[in-house]
Design a protein that fits this description.
Layout (H helix, E strand, L loop, with lengths): L8 H12 L2 H10 L14 H7 L4 H10 L9 E2 L13 H7 L3 H5 L4 E2 L1 H7 L3 H9 L7 E2 L2 E2 H7 L5 H9 L17 H12 L2 H12 L6 H12 L6 H9 L3 H8 L7 H14 L7 H12 L8 H24 L3 H10 L4 H4 L3 H11 L3 H11 L2
Antiparallel strand pairs: 1-2, 3-4
Helix pairs in contact: 3-4, 3-7, 7-8, 10-11, 14-15, 17-18, 19-22
Amino acid sequence: MKTNDILSEKQKLILELLKRNNIDKLKDFINSLETPLYFLNSTNFDLLTLALSLNCTFYIIKLIYNRCNYKTLNYVVKDIYHLYDMSNHKDETIVNYQNSLEVLMDSNNNVKSPLLVSLEFSDFQSVEFLINKGADMYFKINGKYILEILREENLLTIRKLNFLLKNGFSLKKFKIERLSNFEFKYIKKCLENFVFDINFIKYLLNLYKNKAGISKRKFNHRVNNEINKIEIPMELYLKYLDRKDYKKVEYLYKYYGTEKTRSFKDFILFYLNYFDRNFNKKSFYDFFNFIINNENTFPFSKEYAINENETIIINKKLKIVELIKNNNNLKLETFLKNNNYILHCLYSSKSEILNLINEYNVSSDIVDILRKYFLI
């Protein structure tokens, strides 16, 4: 059965009128109905969601909302988007993304709410209208928040997030753990909005208005109080630590709380060891190289990082000497292969390798292995 066959004649008529975006003819049609307009709504045909998806004018959106007497906007409908030609839609992202909304049709089992649809199409005037009429930004569809669905559809943008934040969206109700799969720019935006919220801004404005002085210590204390309002889940630190994206780990660290510095150091060292999957200390070496080569706020001094990396280098050199002395060519090659990342730091010149060869009277196999990895 074709999808058109499940629509009544009146549903087909209003669908065509909505596609034409003609409010006068739409009003005439509504006035000609013998039953209330909301009688046309069904489980897979909702006039408000339909009008939003067809890019109808804001006046049509308001007309349908008022005439359908919606008791709530927090509902879902299984929409049939593939009926609608979207080639003339104003949002080029949507048009280019799928041409006829086939992707959105399949996403989230094709279940939509009015607020989700208005956000999908970047119809911010309608988004604000719906929120003011009671549309819940935290309303879940199939167990997912609207923000999560937009991310899955690849339709989330900073502009959309900013709009939601401006209209009251907050990490107070949306647990930060649910942001773990989001791009970092969205995590950062949500954190900054939650921490330095309207109350903090009012506090600063009040200081300025009253020309009240404040000591640096007191100001820093207030800032730290704001930062400590939220606890970053360890999973977020681990996600970026494992990726060696240390700038993001550093950004998150400022929300950790200065009184927990010792525990953060232990946490980092523990998981650097955990991520040392090849047992070659590369995770430690890369992290401490970041500390050495970048200005940062991590609770590790450059001196500490230099000493740690020097210790790693010394131990690698001792291991190589041990394997050469034991004439263990198989273990030597395996060791050099697993530690290839640091070989350039072990010996500063070819002459040092030649001295090793002469000192321990190594076999030709060992010589060949050393030539291979140190290019002598």
